[in-house]
Specification:
- InterPro entries: GntR_C, TF_FadR/GntR_C, Tscrpt_reg_HTH_GntR, WH-like_DNA-bd_sf, WH_DNA-bd_sf.
- Pfam families: FCD, GntR.
- GO terms for molecular function: DNA binding; DNA-binding transcription factor activity.
- Keywords: DNA-binding, Transcription, Transcription regulation.
- By secondary structure, the chain is mostly helical.
- The protein has 2 domains: 63 residues, Winged helix-like DNA-binding domain superfamily/Winged helix DNA-binding domain (Arc Repressor Mutant, subunit A); 134 residues, Four Helix Bundle (Hemerythrin (Met), subunit A) (Up-down Bundle).
- Helix content is 64%, strand content 4%.
- Strands 1-3-2 form a 3-stranded antiparallel β-sheet.
- The longest helix is centred in the middle third of the chain and has 22 residues.
- The protein starts with 11 loop residues before the first helix and ends in a 12-residue tail after the last helix.
């Protein structure tokens, strides 16, 4: 469930951006739908200014489109951008898990183990939103432990395309496969096996079938729709 109240020290613009981004990723704001600054401001109990600023930031990420004299729309899913996001993640995260295999990080892997335990708990209790939140946190922790937070922040803008496609394909219900892949990645890291950790990460990030976006979800596909 999206946290509809500002987090500690979260300003109005960041709050608006976080919530609207999550609504787009979770398909609460579906591709092609028209959005209203006024309605979003009312929903978030904000003025229109931080909402407008958040939509501008999301437009830069390519998930919002402003059409003159027509309005603001949620962009259709572009498989090419999804593939770009996956390529970026694959390039960075293979190196990150390799770096995590270094001896100096072994004492900090308990946070990853705790995260996986929580993933298992929420998956068993069918709390899929919480599971996906922990899934994202699992990958974030790679960058936090290795002091590469700035790189993660730069990746996040493009990664929204990957996240949205994941929600669409899995229909918000991740499979046990995702959890098992996370466990395999962590096991390889604990063994300090860089080659195996990179192999498991590559397999993990190729779980999305991009062709299915175009074939099974044509109404959301960039190639089959234009905004009106």
């Amino acid at each position: 469930m999206i946290m509809m109240e500002p987090k500690h020290r979260e300003n109005s613009r960041d709050f608006a951006y976080r919530v609207i981004r999550e609504m787009i990723v979770n398909m609460e704001l579906t591709p092609g739908s028209k959005v209203s600054e006024t309605e979003l401001a009312s929903l978030l109990n904000l003025s229109r200014t931080p909402v407008r600023e958040a939509l501008i930031d999301l437009e830069k990420s390519g998930v919002v489109e402003v059409l003159p004299q027509k309005g603001t729309f949620i962009s259709y899913i572009n498989p090419l951008l999804v593939e770009e996001a996956r390529f970026l993640r694959l390039t960075l995260e293979k190196e990150i898990v390799s770096l995590l295999c270094e001896p100096q990080y072994q004492t900090e892997l308990n946070t990853l183990e705790e995260n996986i335990s929580l993933q298992e708990f929420y998956l068993q209790h069918q709390n899929y939103e919480k599971f996906l939140e922990l899934d994202n946190e699992f990958h974030y922790l790679f960058f936090k432990i290795t002091n590469k937070i700035k790189i993660y922040s730069l990746m996040k803008g493009l990664n929204i395309h990957f996240d949205r496609a994941r929600t669409l394909i899995f229909k918000g219900k991740p499979s046990i496969t995702t959890l098992e892949e996370h466990k395999k990645i962590l096991t390889a890291i604990k063994k300090q096996d860089k080659a195996l950790a990179k192999q498991y990460m590559e397999e993990h990030l190729h779980i999305l079938d991009l062709e299915s976006i175009e074939q099974e979800y044509k109404k959301y596909s960039h190639k089959t729709k234009t905004l009106k």
